[in-house]
Amino acid sequence: MERAVTSDEMRSFDGYAINRLNIPSLLLMENAGKGVVQKMNEQFGDLSVKLVYILCGKGNNGGDGFVVARHLLIHGSKVEVILTCKPNELKGDPLTNFNILKSLLSKSSESTESRKSRESHKSRSGVVQFSSLKKMKMLQPPDIIVDALFGTGFKGELNGKYKSLVEWANELPAKRVSIDIPSGVNADNGVAEGVAFKADITVTMALKKIGLTLNQGRSYGGHLEVVDIGVPTDLPIVGKFQTYIIEQKDVQATLPVRSFNVHKHSVGKILVLAGSVGLTGAAAMVSESAMKVGAGAVVLGTPKSVYSILAKKLTEVMTEPLDSTDEGSLSQSSLPEIEKLLQWADMLVLGPGLSRNQETQQLIQHLVSTSTKPMLIDADGLNAIAENPSCLKKRKTKEVILTPHTGELSRIIKLSSEEIEKNRIEIARRVAKEFKVTLVLKGAPTVTATHEGKVFINSTGNPGMATAGSGDVLAGLIAGLWGQGMTSDEAAWCGVFLHGKAGDLAKVKYGEKSLLATDIKTFVPEAIRHVELGLH
């Protein structure tokens, strides 16, 4: 699995390389800058015919920019380094690389002091101190502009000259490249609180930054490339990092393989309690999705008020009519029959379409607190927990998967949806540890957190999947995998990946706007085939 890191973790990684492996920091900067140019060449072709602007700050990101400038000059590119600080403000490795660059420019008979003689820009190379946008706009428009302003240490909001410079850069008809992470984007959560550099490609060093997978960072980063900076990524310190990006090969290696003597009761007996008047679709989709992904037998327990509808709709899923409330939802009087069904089942799916009826919610709370079977809780099951979180903490079963979207989690932990979206990875990690559950926090991207503190970021899916019923399909996929013997954590992140993969395949056929939850369900077998055969 590929790890993703925070800015602090990346500093620890660099520190280990420098202090324990004795790799000079200057060499790391050299490898970083050289790697950026290699990726630019792969993306944009022959760089010798390109005019490139490089926006450089005074920190290490700016130092990387100076290395990029030098290697571009070696390639024959015309380069303008736009320095946002005074040269005497540079220190350490950035200063060293600036001086090397200045010497190279001097030897090519281009003085950094002779700006006035080339104000009309004759496509020569040099360094210009940023003073005003008016001066920048007098320059010849570049083919490529490189963002080397801040890097992973940035927090907050761009302002002043940096805001103006990035706004100007975003408006240029040029290809845009960011080094490590777009300036203006928080490397830990992907939030851009104001203006941020909009890159066509981001070349990040050694390990992916979490902020490139979340929030605005996901779109502002553009195409993502990772550069080897000459440090092994399996160092002991990396083992302490707890955030992973799920790739197809990870799912391929984890999906269950059936033995020749398998039978339906050995690959998952799942009881689903779902549905009520007006919410029969949720019950159907979760049940069918569990079977689509390979569950051996699924029994749907549903109110008598909607039983006939679902019995006609479902063929492979067995349906059981249960006592109803006057509103057509599950009644507490159905409990004895539910307990009989639980004796048969390996696990329980609780919640889709059960309604917010008070009696039904109390029934859900009772089942959460008393059932000893592994349990996936979704939708109205989560609403019941939000009304009485103690039922989850007092539960008898150790194995629980929660599958909330941001709004549902907000109600459970009494934190705004905005705050959860802003810090979805760390909040998911904290909640999973606090409640000792596997937590699937649905969204863009969906993340799976374990009670041990690990978080898995999904890499599949598209905006068209934000449609009613999509979450019901996901719950069924996770349950179906879990019932086949996978651990709760594995079933969760594999189910999320397959769900997104099916959505991506459905998008190819139907487009984003026309995508329905049933389309996602239909493409589940094709998604599994793609994963098992290694197709893309």
List keywords for this structure.
536 residues, 12-stranded mixed beta sheet, 7-stranded parallel beta sheet, 21 helices
Task: Give an overview of the whole structure.
The protein is α/β, with parallel strands linked by helices and 536 residues long. Helices cover 43% and strands 15% of the residues. Strands 8-1-10-19-18-17-16-15-14-11-12-13 form a 12-stranded mixed β-sheet, sandwiched between helices. A 7-stranded parallel β-sheet has the order 4-3-2-5-6-7-9, with helices on one face. Strand 2 (51-56), helix 3 and strand 3 form a beta-alpha-beta unit. The chain is elongated and about 90 Å long. It starts with a strand and ends with a helix.
Provide a concise account of the structure shown.
It contains 21 helices and 19 strands. It has 536 residues and is α/β, with parallel strands linked by helices.
Shape category: elongated
> How many β-strands, per DSSP?
19
Overall mean confidence score, pLDDT? 95
Number of helices: 21
Structural class: alpha/beta
| Helicity, as a percent range | 40-55%
Span between termini: 18 Å
Please list the strands of the largest sheet in the order they lie side by side. Answer: 8-1-10-19-18-17-16-15-14-11-12-13
Q: Which radius of gyration do the C-alpha atoms yield?
A: 28 Å
Give the strand content. Answer: 15-25%
Low-confidence stretches: 110-122
Largest sheet at a glance? Answer: 12 strands, mixed
